Backbone:
């Protein structure tokens, strides 16, 4: 089993329903929601408007763009209504969103718009063995741009690339994530991927550390290197996880679906489109893969399920410690700090091992010893650094 | 088409993908999220812990409880993996949640627990003609209780009934929503429904206004009335929408799935379960049905997509009005007020009609007239009351 799934299952973040299909337990859902909310902030900042499209897909619009047939798209999940009408389960949403916007956009005045959603996608993968990094059902943030001309598309493409790098920075994986030149697929000659270097990645990329860019091995020809002004000697081959991608779609969908707008001169023209994907569940898996250590998960504060893991170590009759820990917990929560309390009747060693496994940024220990010394123990999960602080010093440290 | 779908589509809240399948546009998603967040608060307050289970369902656990066969459950959507393994799309989640918790709960010390989720459900309805009140794909809050004994189940059942009534009160439909005695289905003799009186409801109930309870017509026998101490003379027959239901499940699922815990004496016993459902998308449809008027939607502040609809009415060259409206908008947003700005170049009458249709609680008009008088116009959508206020008075009115 992949490292991310092993760690996340052992630590109680997720549950495996079947290959490529996972449930999120309270700890895991908190991480996933934190990831989604950071993505929402950055999508809002570049003009994104959140929508939510259905999972069930009407075949008619997909036939119009020739993406209904299983020969053309090989990872559909399909199902049927009672009257035997075939339906699909959304693996992406270009078609329904384009068809929807046809009814709401008429004029150049209504553009540009940048709708996005964060919803489950379904892909009938032949194999699914990378934990939550490649799901048959997974969470996807898919944004689409609808503009009147190529320049607006190019500008927004760059703007979104910037937002993506800010997102990866906020998740603590910016340093090891490269904007990667990749194949454009059916829509355009090239596309941009965002690849996080990791031994567990399914992709191979050639990285230029100096230039902070990379090229996907699939397209790394002499011609492409010349285009990018890169020489083979400056490139290192690395395994990487694709954590995002952005495509220029042009009129690939707006033409067949008849999504036209009226320009300043009254002429009808097809809308120019782009698509911008990030997988929050795959990102959670990626963070688990690349930031963990031999003791377990190590969450950056931005996405951690809680900020503090409060571990109370008391003897059977240790009412004083328990009361003190409860008071401390109540005060921290009241001050808006997210705290996970471990008041289980278990040996200290097991509780510490669990705290390391779960990977909350700060562990605070309350015990007979800390009470006697008047100093709490604060441990930083990422660095291992331990501080002994009075309660007042702890509050100062936390800015509360 | 149902009134809720008509209004919500015309006002730009939702889009119909096909019968019983809807997309949520920015305005609609804001309402839906507000509804979900109020439900989250109330579920959290009674001890709920949020999780998120997969849509794709493994047949094996459903066979164990005899709910896989289409003859036993007639509204499954089913699909297939590449290797022809059949999968289902979750229409409820008793089975996977029970199977999941088997692995996390061993002792009476781990109970009670109250997990819940807010996720899409799929039901292959023969007909779907009530807009977002009966979807083939819809949002559901489903909570499940896992306790060690009947008394805890009974207590939590009452606690959750209380939380449900608080939720309906917060949505502005508490007065017309009745806790309703109903059939227990396969799990138990009786259950509790929550029914909102509305001509567009699919259910018939007998209401006692005095006692603030109701009985579903399906179970309204003399025996039941005697049980409840109700006489036919005090009951009125009403059409109603089922907005919530709570069931005592007992060991219906824990026994076949082998979800046992160890009690204080070391004995293994099946966990006692209950289920507690509310449909956020159906609730959104219900609010649209029962609180709208002939001009359009009327959202209560608690779920409204915005608090203020700021309508700017300016002549073509009216820069002064536009600048003033923009400043007012910026100030309100900065103070944390949610404002929808209408700065479209359209006739005033059309903008007012749209504001009425969309149904945001307060409409504020900025025009040459209001600027000349130094008084903004504030209109309450629900009551129609109009006030003329200076900017300072408006801020006081809004407590900012």
Residues:
């Amino acid at each position: 089993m992949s490292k991310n799934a092993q760690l996340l299952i052992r630590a109680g973040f997720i549950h495996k329903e079947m290959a490529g299909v996972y449930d999120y337990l309270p700890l895991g859902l908190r991480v996933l929601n934190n990831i989604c909310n950071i993505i929402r902030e950055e999508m809002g900042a570049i003009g994104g408007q959140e929508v939510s499209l259905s999972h069930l897909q009407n075949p008619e619009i997909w036939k119009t763009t020739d993406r209904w047939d299983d020969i053309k798209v090989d990872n559909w999940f399909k199902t049927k209504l009672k009257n035997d009408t075939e339906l699909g389960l959304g693996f992406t949403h270009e078609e329904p969103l384009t068809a929807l916007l046809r009814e709401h956009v008429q004029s150049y005045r209504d553009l540009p718009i940048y709708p996005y959603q964060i919803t489950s996608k379904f892909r009938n993968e032949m194999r699914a063995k990378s934990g939550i990094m490649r799901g048959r059902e997974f969470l996807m943030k898919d944004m689409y741009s609808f503009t009147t001309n190529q320049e607006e598309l190019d500008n927004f493409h760059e703007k979104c690339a910037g937002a993506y790098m800010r997102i990866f920075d906020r998740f603590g994986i910016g340093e090891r994530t490269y904007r990667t030149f990749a194949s454009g697929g059916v829509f355009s000659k090239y596309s941009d991927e965002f690849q996080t270097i990791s031994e567990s990645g399914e992709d191979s990329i050639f990285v230029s550390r100096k230039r902070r860019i990379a090229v996907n091995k699939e397209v790394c020809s002499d011609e492409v290197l010349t285009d990018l002004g890169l020489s083979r000697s400056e490139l290192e081959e690395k395994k990487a996880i694709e954590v995002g991608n952005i495509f220029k779609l042009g009129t690939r969908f707006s033409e067949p679906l008849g999504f036209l707008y009226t320009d300043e001169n009254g002429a009808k023209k097809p809308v120019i489109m782009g698509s911008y994907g990030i997988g929050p569940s795959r990102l959670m898996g990626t963070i688990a893969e690349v930031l963990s250590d031999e003791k377990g998960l190590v969450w950056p504060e931005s996405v951690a399920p809680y900020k503090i893991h409060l571990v109370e170590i008391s003897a059977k009759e240790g009412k004083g410690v328990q009361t003190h820990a409860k008071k401390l917990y109540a005060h921290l929560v009241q001050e808006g700090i997210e705290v996970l309390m471990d008041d289980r009747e278990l040996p200290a060693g097991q509780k510490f091992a669990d705290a390391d496994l779960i990977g909350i940024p700060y562990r605070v220990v309350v015990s007979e010893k800390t009470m006697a010394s008047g100093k709490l123990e604060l441990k930083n999960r990422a660095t291992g650094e331990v501080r002994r602080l009075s309660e007042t010093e702890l509050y100062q440290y936390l800015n509360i």
About this structure: DSSP finds eleven helices and 21 strands in chain A. Chain A has a mean pLDDT of 95.
